[in-house]
């Protein structure tokens, strides 16, 4: 009993301690192409074996940079696997995430040295590889901060015709909900793409530092930069510990503040210039800590910060603003850049020098709106039912990124609903062999559907009649059979209907026939047996259900009449025979009547011989 109570107390305190401490952030690391889970030094981070991919081929990897995780495999995506392939990862708790993808090179001599391709997260393009990426450590991966709200994340790779995308690893690391909060624009519709992270005054990259710190900071790579100009500035470093480094929401590693660049007498301005994509908005984060032993208090080092010549921060006094020496100070600002360069200048105010410990630059990307989920599901059902070959891709979102829509799908943006929908689908002459699924009717906005010239079999789903926006429907040159569903008569917007060269049979819905009078252009020729509108044969033997019931009823009535007649005739004959016998037995008084009767009998015999059979045969036609 006592043991039980102790156990219970232990459980109670354990739960108490874990509920007061923040739970560990969600972390998913995938080693692409790997058959087994792996752990990599020096952190012994755990990588899951490859899963959740839509295609591609595993291969041995060549790592382009020393910062690439030391993994042995990758997954690459030749065009035969489709122009876009994705990792679709489920069960990701709602939250804010740092998503990072490392690129690799296939370790086989015949492969392109440097594939160039695009990377998207949740339909938003976050990275385009530039030629020369293999020789820049900070270009061997793509990283972005995204909000994931629906429990899944889709990371896609889009071929651009320059080699096969090859992926070493995918990391989905939860960060603080407010990480990199930069102002009112920050939020669910915005993705921050990491453009650059620099640690100043050192030649040693800072990597895996987050792993030994607070995991809510993610896992950042800091590219080292020892000086900005050859002799214009100089590095500083310290072993002293730094206060206020690892605090919410960004939890920077202390090591980041233990080195810095300071300006010198020969060039008091401290300036750093980097190349950027023009006409984008950037979020800039500058890190300071007074680590120079010659500065002993506030007021001794004061400077302005200018971006491309415009002052963004005035009178920065690191000691005063951070509260002490060896204490972290982080400033952030948002800038809209029209040119191709970003220059950060620190301009001293009081004759002393400027200091800078680290720089982070993010491109602010408006997240793409997505395609209506029911239309995505409809296209996925169509992909399956038609047996769309891999080369089509059809992974990720059909309409976004806008640069890489699914082949064959025409997309339209709906401003009012803030989503994309499909208004056209052209899969003509693609050698498709499947059937048309009912789900096709979920493409509510479809105006144009062309599936001409394939080998599609089965029937036309009657649900197609609910896609009332359809104006052009071309299913010609396939193997469709059965009849044209009556529901197609509801397609009042239909201007063009090509059903020629199939195996369709039965009556063309009357409502479609009526449409022809309004100048619509329909082609029903070359089918097994369509009928019922001008130009096709008349629907002779193909009678409606009502007519069949009528005919059946008539035939039964005739048969009944015939039976009644035969019974009457037989009865009458019996009566005559009987009266003959009676007359013969009784003699004269009935003689006259008898001759009369026998004449009658002969007449009726003649009559029967001549007409009774024909009457029976003609019965139905006479009745009808
Ligand atoms: C990958 O490398 C291993 C040896 O390290 C080799 O056995 C294997 O065949 C290679 N796989 C491929 C696909 O080249
Ligand atoms: C970034 O700067 C904005 C505006 O100056 C400020 O409101 C915000 O708190 C800063 N973010 C962080 C995480 O310090
Ligand atoms: C940059 O930000 C401004 C104001 O927030 C916005 O109007 C503009 O569209 C943004 N530009 C880009 C390229 O995102
Ligand atoms: C459908 O595609 C075929 C083959 O590409 C083309 O000939 C036909 O004109 C298209 N149909 C319509 C209605 O545009
Ligand atoms: C249509 O063709 C399929 C075979 O492709 C056959 O199973 C089906 O019975 C046919 N349906 C009609 C209505 O002829
Ligand atoms: C209708 O389809 C047939 C082939 O099935 C074709 O020969 C004919 O030219 C088409 N008619 C029109 C008006 O397009």
UniProtKB/TrEMBL annotation:
Pfam families: LRR_8 (PF13855), Malectin_like (PF12819). Residues 604-624 are annotated as: Disordered. The keyword tRNA processing does not apply. Residues 30-363 form the Malectin-like domain. Its main location: membrane. The keyword Transmembrane helix applies. GO terms for cellular component: membrane. Residues 1-21 form the signal peptide. It is a single-pass membrane protein. Keywords: Membrane, Signal, Transmembrane, Transmembrane helix. The chain crosses the membrane at residues 549-570. It is found in: Membrane. This is Leucine-rich repeat receptor-like serine/threonine-protein kinase At2g14440 isoform X1. The lineage of its organism: Eukaryota, Viridiplantae, Streptophyta, Embryophyta, Tracheophyta. The gene is LOC111278172.
């Amino acid at each position: 009993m006592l043991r039980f109570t102790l156990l219970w107390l232990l459980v109670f305190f354990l739960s108490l301690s874990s509920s007061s401490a923040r739970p560990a952030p969600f972390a998913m690391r995938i080693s692409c192409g790997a058959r087994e889970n792996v752990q990599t030094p020096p952190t012994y981070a755990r990588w899951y074996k490859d899963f959740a991919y839509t295609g591609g081929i595993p291969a041995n990897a060549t790592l382009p940079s020393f910062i690439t995780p030391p993994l042995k495999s990758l997954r690459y995506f030749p065009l035969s696997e489709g122009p876009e392939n994705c990792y679709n990862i489920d069960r990701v708790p709602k939250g804010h995430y740092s998503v990072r993808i490392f690129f690799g090179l296939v370790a086989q001599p015949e492969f392109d040295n440097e594939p160039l391709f695009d990377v998207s997260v949740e339909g938003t393009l976050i990275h385009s590889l530039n030629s020369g990426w293999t020789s820049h450590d900070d270009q061997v991966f793509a990283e972005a901060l995204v909000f994931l709200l629906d429990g899944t994340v889709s990371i896609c790779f889009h071929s651009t015709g320059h080699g096969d995308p090859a992926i070493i690893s995918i990391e989905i690391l939860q960060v603080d909900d407010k990480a990199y909060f930069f102002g009112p624009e920050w939020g669910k519709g915005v993705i921050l793409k990491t453009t650059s992270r620099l640690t100043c005054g050192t030649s040693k990259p800072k990597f895996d530092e987050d792993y030994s710190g607070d995991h809510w900071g993610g896992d950042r790579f800091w590219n080292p930069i020892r000086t900005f100009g050859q002799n214009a500035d100089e590095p500083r470093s310290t072993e002293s510990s730094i206060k206020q480094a690892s605090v919410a929401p960004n939890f920077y590693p202390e090591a980041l503040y233990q080195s810095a660049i300071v300006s010198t007498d020969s060039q008091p301005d401290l300036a750093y210039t980097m190349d950027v994509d023009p006409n984008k908005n950037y979020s800039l984060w500058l890190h300071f800590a007074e680590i120079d032993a010659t500065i002993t208090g506030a007021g001794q080092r004061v400077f302005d910060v200018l971006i491309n010549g415009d002052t963004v921060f005035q009178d920065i006094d690191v000691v005063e603003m951070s509260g002490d020496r060896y204490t972290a100070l982080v400033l952030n600002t948002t800038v809209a850049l029209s040119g191709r360069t970003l220059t950060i200048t620190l301009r001293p105010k009081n004759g002393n020098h400027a200091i800078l410990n680290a720089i982070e630059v993010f491109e602010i990307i408006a997240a793409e709106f997505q395609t209506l989920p029911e239309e995505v599901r409809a296209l996925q059902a169509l992909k399956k039912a038609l047996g769309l070959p891999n080369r089509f891709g059809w992974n990720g979102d059909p309409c976004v990124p806008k640069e890489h829509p699914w082949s064959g799908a025409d997309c339209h943006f709906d401003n009012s609903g803030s989503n994309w929908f499909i208004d056209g689908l052209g899969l003509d002459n693609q050698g498709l062999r499947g059937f048309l699924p009912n789900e096709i009717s979920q493409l509510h906005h479809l105006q144009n559907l062309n599936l001409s010239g394939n080998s599609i079999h089965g029937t036309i789903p009657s649900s197609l009649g609910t896609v009332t926006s359809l104006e052009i429907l071309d299913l010609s040159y396939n193997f469709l059979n059965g009849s044209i569903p009556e529901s197609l008569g509801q397609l009042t917007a239909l201007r063009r209907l090509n059903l020629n060269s199939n195996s369709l049979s039965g009556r063309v819905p009357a409502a479609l026939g009526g449409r022809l009078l309004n100048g619509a252009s329909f082609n029903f020729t070359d089918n097994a047996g369509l009928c019922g509108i001008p130009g096709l044969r008349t629907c002779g033997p193909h009678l409606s259900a009502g007519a069949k019931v009528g005919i059946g009823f008539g035939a039964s009535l005739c048969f009944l009449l015939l039976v009644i007649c035969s019974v009457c005739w037989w009865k009458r004959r019996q009566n005559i025979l009987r009266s003959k016998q009676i007359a013969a037995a009784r003699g004269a008084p009935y003689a006259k009547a008898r001759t009369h009767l026998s004449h009658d009998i002969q007449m009726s015999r003649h009559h029967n011989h001549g007409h009774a059979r024909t009457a029976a045969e003609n019965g139905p036609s006479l009745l009808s």
